[in-house]
Amino acid sequence: MTKPTTQKKDAWNTLGIFFLLLLVCSSIAYYAILKLNPTSIYVGALMISPALAAFLTLKIKKRHISSLPWSLKNLKYLRISNFTPILYVSIAYVLLGLFGLGGFINTQTISEWSNELGIDESNQTLVVTVMVFLLLTVGVIKNLGSTLGEEIGWRGFLVFELRKVMSFKALTILSGIIWAVWHYPIINLMYGRGEHLFLHMGAFTIMIIGISVILAYFTFKSNSLWPAAIYHSVHNIYIQKICSPLTVSNENTELWIDEYGFMIPMVTTVFAIYFWIKAGKEKL
Predict the structure, then answer these.
(1) CA geometry: angle at 70 spanning 64 and 73, to 5°?
(2) Which of 77, 149, 233, 284 could bond to 47 as cystine, CB 3.0-4.6 Å?
């Protein structure tokens, strides 16, 4: 058996162990979420499941945890990973407003932020400015622990193992599908009683595959998992804590807003195509 064939066989063996452990770890967390109580502590346990599966796989394969891409030599990709989700999410929510799929300013949210910050509600600009700044700094750092749990597994481990057996383009699609399907029980919990469950799953899957292209590009260019972890945290905070709460919903909003509507997936697809082409030109 040739050396490349042996290496590929070992990579597939490693991937098989990882997927099995991921299934076990995630199933335990999902049992707690779906059968006990969908509290944040159980969701946090789910989010660290990819990292736990990666660590256990490395242990079984007698590889050290330090073999993961912990270092970051070029801060350029950290800056870009911070800016990119803010850019595409902003574009998506501006389009929501322009097409009448939601309003721009939710005064109820501003009122809640005013109470939380202790700033007079009459100064809406100051309330929004302070809260957005704090969420994109303090909030992102606080959320980083959860997103790091995912990104150690997905970008720190999975994409590098997949790269041993397939091309950049193939691994971005496959890792995106795996990442999306991993979320399906949560989406079913959120929308399972509604009539648009499969539309929300489809929108989320499109978005996740697009993001997987972008994150794989940043990860391989930087040879580090940190840009992906920062990107993931900014993406979550900017959508869930800022843009969606500030949007005024109407009868058309549900299928277009947030990670489970179609506007963000449409915009991320455009971004993904750009990075897909860029990766090809750079022979990633």
Answers:
(1) 135
(2) 149
Sign of CA dihedral 226, 232, 237, 243: positive
**pLDDT tens across 193-242, in order?**
888 999 999 999 999 999 999 999 999 999 999 999 999 999 999 999 99
Q: Give how far Cα 151 sits from Cα of 3, 48, 179, 187, 283, Å.
A: 30, 9, 11, 20, 23
Rounded to the nearest 5°, which phi and psi values hold at 273?
A: -60, -40
Q: Is the dihedral of CA 52, 58, 62, 67 positive or negative?
A: negative
Whole-angstrom distance, CA of residue 236 vs CA of residue 46: 16
Q: Cα–Cα distance between 25 and 53 in angstroms, integer?
A: 7
Q: What is the sign, positive or negative, of the torsion defined by CA atoms of 262, 266, 267, 269?
A: positive
**Dihedral (C-alpha) 50, 54, 60, 66: value to the nearest 10 degrees?**
-150
φ and ψ of 20, to 5 deg: -65, -45
